[in-house]
Write a structure and sequence with these properties.
Belongs to the universal stress protein A family. This is Universal stress protein. InterPro entries: Rossmann-like_a/b/a_fold, UspA. The chain is of the alpha/beta class. The chain has one domain: Rossmann fold (3-Layer(aba) Sandwich). Helix content is about 45%, strand content about 25%. It is built from eleven helices and eleven strands. Strands 1, 2, 3, 4, 5, 6, 7, 8, 9, 10 and 11 form an eleven-stranded mixed β-sheet that branches. The longest helix is centred in the first third of the chain and has 20 residues. About 45% of the residues are buried.
Length: about 280
C-alpha cells in the first residue's frame, strides 16, 4: 500500500464490521480534505486471562477476521482517493493500545467508535483518567453507523475542540457534500451578541456560507431539541477530557446519550489545527 509523508495521518481504530464503513468514511473525508493518509488499525482485545502468546497461536483465525475487516476498510478508503495502510494489533489494553498506536505512528487525528463505556472493543482501564489528560493528538469518537451524513449540526461556544468540530464539518461538506448548520446557545436576551459571535466564528473557520442558528435556553436541552432535525451532531469536548466524561456519564454525556441523532465527539489537546501542526512541527 502506498504511503505519503506529504500530509497528516488520520488513524482509524476498527473493531466492529458494523461501524467500519462509517469510521473509514469519516477518516477518509478528513484525510482527503487535508491531503493526508489513513492508517486503519484493528485492535483485537485479548482477555486478561489469555496470554498474548496463546492468542497468537490462533493467529490464522484472527488473521482471517482481521483481513476481512481491513480489506473492507481499504475498499471504502479507495472512494476518497487517499493512501491507506493497515495494521492488526493484539492487546490486553483496548483504548490504551489506540493511544500507543497514535503516538507510535505519529498520528495527527484518531477516529474511533464508542458504545457506552467500551472503546475499540476493549474494557475501560482504571488508568483512563491519566490517559485522557494527555491526548497524543486530535480525537473524534463516533456513535453511529451512518457512513454518509447529509445534514450536520455543529453546536459551538468557541474553544480548541470546537475548532476541531469545524474542521470535521468542513471536510464532510467539501468532500461528502453535507449541509452544515452551526448552533450557538445563549441566555435569554443575548441573541444579538450571540449572532455577532457566531457569524465571526463561522467566517474564521471557513464556514461563513453555512446556516447559522442562535437559540436562547439551557445548553443541553437546546442541543437535544435542535439536533433532532439532523442526521449528525458534531460536539466539541468542554472542560473535562472527552474520554473521562464519557466513562463518568457526566451531564453532558447524558444529554448526548439521549439524542436520537448520531454524535461525533471531538477533542483537541491544543489549539493547533492538523495543517498548523503539520507545517509548524509537533
Amino acid at each position: 500500500m502506498t504511503e505519503t509523508d506529504d500530509g497528516p495521518t488520520v488513524l482509524v481504530a476498527l473493531s466492529n464490521p458494523r461501524t467500519e464503513s462509517a469510521l473509514v468514511a469519516l477518516a477518509g473525508a478528513l484525510a482527503r480534505h487535508e491531503g493526508g493518509r489513513v492508517l486503519a488499525v484493528h485492535v483485537v482485545t485479548v482477555p486478561d486471562q489469555t496470554s498474548l502468546e496463546k492468542a497468537a497461536e490462533s493467529r490464522a483465525r484472527l488473521d482471517g477476521s482481521s483481513d476481512e475487516l481491513l480489506s473492507a476498510a481499504v475498499a471504502d478508503a479507495a472512494a476518497f482517493g487517499v493512501p491507506i495502510e493497515t495494521k492488526t494489533v493484539l492487546s490486553h489494553r483496548g483504548i490504551e493500545e489506540v493511544f500507543d498506536a497514535a503516538r507510535t505512528n505519529d498520528a495527527d487525528a484518531v477516529v474511533m467508535g464508542y458504545g457506552g463505556t467500551r472503546f475499540a472493543g476493549g474494557r475501560v482501564e482504571g488508568s483512563l483518567d491519566e490517559i485522557a489528560r494527555d491526548l497524543p493528538c486530535d480525537f473524534l469518537v463516533f456513535d453511529g453507523a451512518q457512513p454518509n451524513p447529509t445534514d450536520v449540526l455543529v453546536p459551538t461556544a468557541g474553544g480548541p475542540s470546537s475548532d476541531l468540530s469545524a474542521e470535521a464539518a468542513a471536510a464532510l461538506r467539501d468532500v461528502r457534500g453535507a449541509t452544515v448548520s452551526l448552533l450557538h446557545v445563549v441566555d435569554p436576551g443575548g441573541e444579538e451578541a450571540g449572532r455577532e459571535f457566531l457569524a465571526a466564528w463561522a467566517a474564521g473557520h471557513g464556514l461563513g456560507d453555512v446556516d447559522l442558528r442562535v437559540e436562547a435556553g439551557d445548553v443541553e436541552e437546546t442541543i437535544e431539541r435542535v439536533a433532532e432535525g439532523y442526521d449528525l451532531a458534531i460536539v466539541g469536548a468542554t472542560e473535562r477530557g472527552l474520554l473521562s466524561r464519557i466513562v463518568r456519564r457526566s451531564l453532558a454525556y447524558g444529554a448526548i446519550e439521549r439524542l436520537d441523532t448520531p454524535v461525533l465527539l471531538a477533542e483537541r489537546p491544543s489549539a493547533r489545527s492538523l495543517r498548523e501542526r503539520l507545517v509548524g512541527g509537533r
